[in-house]
Amino acid sequence: MSKRVIFALGGNAILTNDASAEAQQAALKETAKKLAAYVKSNPGVQLVITHGNGPQVGNLLLQGAAGATEKNPAMPLDTVVAMTQGEIGFWMANALNAELEGNQAVTIVTRAVVDQNDAAFENPTKPIGMFYQAAELETLKQDHPDWVFKEDAGRGYRRVVPSPEPINIVESEAVETLADSGAILIAGGGGGIPVMETPDGYQGVEAVIDKDFTAAKLAEVVDADELVILTAIDMAYKDYGTPAEEELHELTVSKAQAYVDAGEFAEGSMKPKILALISFVKRTGNRAVMTSLDNVADYPENGRATVIVPD
After folding, report:
1. Is 126 a catalytic residue?
2. Where in the chain is the domain with CATH 3.40.1160.10?
3. Residue 11 designated active-site
4. Arch. (CATH architecture) of 4-224
5. Which candidate, 222, 234, 244, 285, has a CA 20 to 30 Å from the CA of 200?
6. Using an 8 Å Cβ cutoff, are 38 and 297 in contact?
7. Residue 191 annotated to the active site
8. Which CATH architecture group holds 225-311?
9. pLDDT tens, residue by residue, 62-112
10. For the segment 4-62, what is each residue's pLDDT rounded down to a tens digit?
11. Residue-level pLDDT at 16
12. How far apart are CA 229 and CA 240, in angstroms?
């Protein structure tokens, strides 16, 4: 069987300071060039791409709240996740197909099953939408009394929502079939639409699943050979941002977990990425990689990546 690889793209690959559709499509054209370089240098690889949507979800919720009326109410969070999954998948497929000169990329709207008893519903942690300064919070809380805000890695405050872990991917069989066909598949966007199993079928819930955990679960259920999380930097660091900063190249699962337990990684940024990589390696015995989008075609040669391997 061909090598099957799951990419998880960070939000920096999609959204710049300009939130317009035109600017996001322009950003994805640049992203597509880098992904296409990987595809061209790795013929035969079955590639599945997931992506974040936190800024897009937050912005769409703000638009909905600002324009909501009794006859035209704002959409619930699970539906907004579906909407942004569709728009980003549309833009990304267009950009990839243009770069590869063919209809190789396919987008599938994807649902991720969560547990109704997940403790995340009692402790919202997933940042969505834009950054706010402390002076803005009082007005925001008056306008949106049900919203919860938390400081995000020294960059300001963001709204946070429940982020349960995915326990299954509804469309996993379809993902495998499409990957086997040779398509470049865009799936699990924004972590997937969070749903619960009920006697009447799947029901959406108010949450946003971390796309890195969905990428790890998707990689597990479709028997991927490798999970690659693409972010803004080439690798993770110990003592990040201090004079003692140290690059982390190859780590065993135990060593990576020890760094997590020691608080080496920020809660809203690097920590979920490392935990997702650990989860995939523990459940599959395959290796997992974190590097930057800019370095995606070169990390096997230059070694600028954090690679987690079994103990």
Report:
1. yes
2. 4-224, 225-311
3. yes
4. 3-Layer(aba) Sandwich (3.40)
5. 222
6. yes
7. no
8. 3-Layer(aba) Sandwich (3.40)
9. 888 788 888 988 898 999 999 999 999 999 999 999 999 887 899 999 999
10. 999 999 876 787 678 888 999 999 999 999 999 999 888 889 999 999 888 888 888 88
11. 67
12. 19
Please tell me the distance from the alpha carbon of residue 87 to that of residue 60, in angstroms, as a whole number: 12
- The answer to whether 273 is a known catalytic residue is yes
- Residues contacting 267, CB < 8 A, separation 6+: 125, 153
From the list 12, 42, 94, 286, the catalytic residue is 12
Beta strand 201-204 with 193-198: parallel, antiparallel or unpaired? antiparallel
> Is 59 among the residues known to form the active site?
no
Amino acid 223 reads D
Q: Which one of the listed residues 52, 188, 211, 271 is annotated catalytic? A: 211
**198: Cα within 13 Å, side-chain hemisphere:** 9
Q: CB atoms < 10 A from the CB of 226, how many? A: 18
**Which is catalytic among the residues 10, 11, 58, 191?**
11
Model-wide pTM > 0.90: no
